[in-house]
Design goal:
With 359 residues, the chain is α/β, with parallel strands linked by helices. The protein has 2 domains: 131 residues, Aspartate Aminotransferase, domain 1 (Alpha-Beta Complex), CATH 3.90.1150.10; 217 residues, Type I PLP-dependent aspartate aminotransferase-like (Major domain) (Aspartate Aminotransferase, domain 2), CATH 3.40.640.10. The strands form 4 sheets. Strands 4-10-9-8-7-5-6 form a 7-stranded mixed beta sheet, with helices on both faces. It has a 3-stranded antiparallel beta sheet with strand order 11-14-13, with helices on one face. Helix 5 links the parallel strand 5 and strand 6. Helix 3 runs parallel beside helix 10 and helix 4 packs across helix 5. The relative contact order is 0.16. It binds 4'-deoxy-4'-aminopyridoxal-5'-phosphate. The site of 4'-deoxy-4'-aminopyridoxal-5'-phosphate has 12 residues, from helix 4.
Length: 359
Amino acid sequence: MNASTPLASRASYAGITLYAPDRRPCAIDLSDNTNLWGAPPGAQRVIAEAASPSLTRYPQLYAGTLKDALARYVGVSPDHIVTGCGSDDVLDSAIRAFAEPGDRIALPDPSFAMIPIFAQMNALEPVLVPLTSEYDVNVDRMLAARAKIVYLCSPNNPTGAALARASIDAIVDRAPGLVIIDEAYAEFADANVLDLAARTDRVLITRTMSKAFGLAGLRIGYAIGSPRLVQEVEKSRGPYKVSGLAERAAVAALTDDIDWVRANAASAVRNRKRFAAELARIGSSALPSSANFVLVPVPSAVHVAAALRERGIAVRPFERLVAQSGTALASTGGDALRITVGPWELLDATLGALREAIG
Ligand code: PMP
């Protein structure tokens, strides 16, 4: 590799690891936890009918109309909301706003793969703290890192497990700095921690319209926190991060399509349970999940994913994930497949292909 090697084919650039999951097209794509029922109809209508000013004019500086709609959806006032170009952007901006180069950011291991990358991009030291044997956050070790920022993800990607409320509370009570709680998959879970954002001004909760709302292509994320917190994130984020068309489509989804979102999230939860039961019947057990995906420990996950891709199904393989001894994940050396839950016919096809690939 040298300076003339195209960026996309390098594993790292200027010392920063590139995020490069396999995104090749596939007939059935269960690899990225998006909404496999489609996009919300109201949002699609806005895009189809887009008039010229939506394209020629700059959007709002800080997406004020979207903030209002998100505030109504979440049940807070608009001064508690900051938006961004996907929750990736909100997370990156928050990290930059609340930590200086050289500071530590503590996060569970495994968790959302972008966080160590954002840490590198912002010259922070990531401190990875293995999950417990219950796939919960290790409170004492997390706090022992004395990190400027603690990142938690609940339900956690890639395990799918919701963190215990008592663990989250203990960290929020005792952490020295900001606690970011990533709730990208909140719509699929039984509980959330929104109340914390109202109770303390050291908690920032990030969310996205990429998953339950089916709008990953529009890149809309947001965070909920005290007005002081969200102002700092907004300063580090900068203006014009949500395009005008994306804002209008997202507002339509939040106004007209909430029933559509809730119905599909309920289908995802039903199918997740049914899929887990069927997996158990073929001898593969999924980790308990509160998200729209399941993590299925399998040996040689990369090979199994390749065999599934040959059968027209894309899933996300993980190799050597950190796992406590005695857990299902440890039994495969930390290898596992993360499979997005969608309409049943896609999962049924996956079960058939898995049976062949593993068998
Ligand atoms: N957080 C978690 C836990 C995720 O899984 C993802 C998407 N992979 C994101 C944040 C980022 O989502 P987006 O930027 O599309 O809002």
